[in-house]
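seq:
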Amino acid sequence: MPSQIEIDRRYRNLRARMAAENLDALLVCGNQYAGFEGAVFYTSGFEIVHRYVILVLPLEGEPTLVFPREARWIGDKAKPWVKDQVWPDVPGAWIRERAADRKWKRMGVYGMNFILAVRDYRELAQAPLELVPFDFQFDMARAVKSEEELIEVRDAMNIIVEGFWTLVAHYQPGKTEAEIMAPAVERFFARGAGPRMMNIVLSGSHGEAEAHFKIPGLRKVEADDLMLYSLEITGAGGYWVEFSRALIHGKPSPTTQKMADAYPESMEAARKLLRAGELASNVHRAVADAFSKHGFALGHLSGHSIGTTMIEHPAIGAKSEIPLEENMIFSLHPQVVDQEGKVCLYTQDTFRIGKTEGENLADVPWKFYHGGERPPSAVALRPEKEFSSLEE
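struct:
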């Protein structure tokens, strides 16, 4: 649970953005979809277990958690610091009535494009209210992390790196994609990640990975299969981090190796620019230019802000003219693809924006891992026997 000082800081920052937009109230929407639960957790302390929740934050006065009636017995309602809680049949109808009673005219909505339920939007659209999309403003209000938040971020990073080394220790050809992933996921869950995980993979044969993500399945992995597990989790504190390194027991293809040769230059160029005052677009340009010199392009944005929501504003992209600020946290995940868009290489690191350069929160060299490598002594893994059930 964050301190009262931290809670007050969050509301103060949000209300400053609300006042600048002349909002009377803000709806903060969250649902069970991985990565979409975090804004409600950030503003109330409620952990979504199933379905969805809306926090109503007035410009002045106490906030309210609005649950759909069918979710009354889902989730620990005593855990959040927001104690004003209601369970109407249709949350949107209750909010519409509250807005009319309080004479609200402009209401911001975090999550209107992807999270707000259609039935609730229909109710709100009937009201004499102006609904204002507020995702960008909300994310910018929470982009700079406090010292309390940084503790949670570093804890999550410790967990994900421990899981990675566990994965490497148990990686070997002949296992399925899912079996290779399983020990890491077991470790994540044991350390409090719960369902807040999205562990996916890019993979392929003959030393190359196909350029589309998938869920690790029952396909057996051969020695020359390239495996790029994208590890994305939170710790118990609810802060997302992301991490990935390449796995292959055999040899990468010439195309993959050529891609790999571009990565050190690209990631180091980005790290140096992840500093206070730098434009996010300049970081993206440095990454893209480094790969372009080697004849490759990026598959998507090179990164994004990350916190209690998996993907937050601002992005690290060509059109992101946002000055970076110290203690913002970013996932940097350039995916380089060949000219046909079929073969790719991928990495993920989580960075803290520093005064003069970025801080990589995971001290793990970028290279091809072959299985069996051991972590630095500072990273302690559990005894092998604790994973015996996964090996049987």
